């Protein structure tokens, strides 16, 4: 019980701090349950920035240790534009309606492993059982093993997927950056 209240306090503090200032730049958060992505962050950031030009200003943030609570806190904070995380975590958040469908930008047939039934936000009361969420099958994640920029830095594990959270500051810009990481 004590742990629950501690986690609740931390998440509350994050929401308060997140509301204190505007977000500058574009962030990609990477966490891996089978390795440490920290070694590639600088090279990946340099390569991505060169491909995108001056805007948006990209920052790659990595977690040296895998922690389910860390993922929860990062999603709750709403400060990242792209998440790269293990498949099971990506699917869990997608089923809860936390990820953006990518069908309009990427070919679901090409990235079949990222297609699953998840929840999408709909007009209030128009979802399943009168809720705001509706179960739909979409492409929610792109496997890193299919992303050229990760292949270029020799870090494309098959267990990781890139996804865009519903809280991304600019979903269209996030899709543009995700496309740059993929091509």
From TrEMBL:
Gene3D superfamilies the record matches: Periplasmic binding protein-like II (3.40.190.10)
Domain of life: Bacteria
Protein name, entry field: Extracellular solute-binding protein
Lineage, top ranks: Bacteria, Bacillati, Bacillota, Bacilli, Bacillales
